[in-house]
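Quick one:
INPUT:
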């Protein structure tokens, strides 16, 4: 059995679950890219893959994760090649894809399964779609992330495993192709496996809610967004969007506009805002 997850924290909790239940034993692999943001046009071609890498290089440049792309820590194509090699080498091997109801996991699912049609009948999905679990306090909750489940709850979660149907292998890749062709940059989960697409500025208005008339570190603004906002995304993407808005003159800034702890941001002063309005 091979397990695929989409978050580093999922790997940790699934390993803990394996220690409790030997029937879950198997290699755990992680799809690392966040396909809920960024360009997807031609994602199944060398040119499309390189375009996406270049986009990430630009997003991360001058920030907390500058240079990460070229460290080759994220290489999902190599992961798929390794996965296919294992499935080919062991005809009885099966794959379990673990996904929760969030845009990151669902986009990762679409990207992965679109390359596995040849293995229909051997690929299972465990999708935690509006399903209740018990948290550490003994309360019922609906997890949005795999790693939110207690390791012992995986004993219940494994019962959700089902084969991805032939119909899904026909329909879902077509849906993914449609999403990739509508290359607006941000994808939001509407429910089930339905994704909507939006422009790169999608989070800007919500990010603005956490910018006040007082100086705040960019790191504090981003932390507040991540802890309070209904729809969230990665901190690197938010840092890039904040920098873009500063470049466009939306906010006052002091310090070196580099890492998120290097500069402070506040709303435009009344005098500056008035001058901008007059212009």
């Amino acid at each position: 059995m091979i397990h695929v997850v989409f978050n580093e924290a999922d790997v940790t909790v699934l390993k803990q679950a394996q220690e409790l239940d030997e029937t879950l034993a198997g290699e755990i692999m992680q799809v690392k890219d966040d396909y809920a943001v960024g360009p997807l046009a031609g994602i199944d071609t060398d040119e499309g893959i390189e375009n996406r890498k270049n986009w990430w290089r630009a997003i991360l440049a001058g920030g907390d994760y500058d240079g990460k792309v070229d460290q080759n820590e994220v290489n999902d194509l190599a992961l798929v090649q390794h996965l296919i090699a294992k499935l080919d080498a062991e005809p009885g091997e099966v794959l379990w894809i673990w996904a929760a109801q969030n845009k990151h996991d669902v986009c990762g699912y679409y990207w992965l399964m679109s390359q596995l049609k040849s293995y229909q009948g051997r690929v299972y999905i465990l999708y935690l779609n509006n399903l209740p679990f018990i948290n550490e306090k003994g309360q019922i909750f609906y997890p949005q992330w795999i790693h939110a489940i207690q390791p012992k709850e995986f004993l219940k979660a494994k019962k959700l495993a089902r084969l991805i149907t032939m119909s899904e292998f026909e329909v879902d890749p077509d849906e993914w192709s449609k999403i990739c062709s509508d290359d607006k940059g941000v994808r939001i989960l509407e429910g089930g496996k339905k994704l909507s697409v939006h422009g790169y500025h999608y989070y800007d208005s919500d990010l603005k809610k956490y910018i006040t008339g007082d100086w705040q570190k960019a790191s504090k603004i981003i932390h507040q967004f991540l802890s309070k906002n209904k729809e969230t995304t990665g901190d690197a993407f938010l840092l890039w969007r904040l920098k873009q808005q500063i470049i466009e003159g939306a906010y006052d800034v002091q310090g070196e506009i580099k890492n998120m702890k290097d500069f402070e941001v506040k709303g435009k002063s009344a005098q500056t805002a008035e001058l901008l309005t007059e212009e």
